[in-house]
Write a structure and sequence with these properties.
By secondary structure, the chain is mainly alpha-helical. Helices cover 88% and strands 0% of the residues.
């Protein structure tokens, strides 16, 4: 499969997970309350730091997540699949709660400025992880696939690099601009 196919698979998995997260009833999504509370605490902590430190920490956290997902992708592609599914469901659930309790405007102000860059970067990186991981798995069973593993790795590392590069401006937007829009 080509990288483009994995990109569509990553997008589909993420969108389906957003829809699932969105459609989770409030009483069930309340089970995520502790996780959401921890995210709120982390967010408050990050916003209490100087914005440059916040941006760098956000960038490091997001980059590390993508790098770990890519590195562990040969393990049945579980980590990239779980990352796409969990993050999509969490985004859907939190979005539904914010719209219900506050407004669409608050949701858009909190997500759009950095999300326009961060979400595509996340999907590009996870698609690269799926693409590489799947070929690594196939190459265990098919000898002819082993010859294409190194070129395939180099190609997917290029996509991963693009994703990582996109995470940097997204982190700065999240640290400097998003808080201004949420006031």
């Amino acid at each position: 499969m080509k990288y483009r196919d994995w990109l569509f698979i990553a997008i589909a998995l993420f969108v389906i997970s957003i829809i699932v997260g969105w459609s989770i009833p409030n009483d069930i999504s309340g089970l995520l309350g502790e996780d959401i509370a921890q995210l709120a605490q982390l967010s408050n902590f990050l916003l209490s730091l100087p914005p440059i430190v916040t941006a760098l920490l956000i960038f490091l956290k997001n980059s590390l997540s993508l790098l770990i997902s890519f590195a562990l992708s040969p393990l049945l592609c579980l980590i990239p699949i779980l990352a796409l599914a969990f993050n999509g469901a969490l985004l859907g659930s939190i979005s539904a709660a914010i719209i219900e309790r506050e407004s669409v405007g608050l949701l858009l102000a909190g997500i759009l400025p950095h999300g326009v860059i961060e979400l595509p970067a996340f999907i590009i990186g996870e698609a690269a992880a799926l693409s590489f991981g799947s070929l690594a798995i196939v190459s265990l069973f098919k000898k002819d696939a082993r010859d294409s593993l190194w070129p395939h790795l180099k190609q997917n590392l290029k996509y991963l690099t693009i994703a990582l590069a996109l995470l940097l401006p997204a982190a700065f937007i999240e640290a400097f601009i998003t808080p201004l829009l949420l006031k």
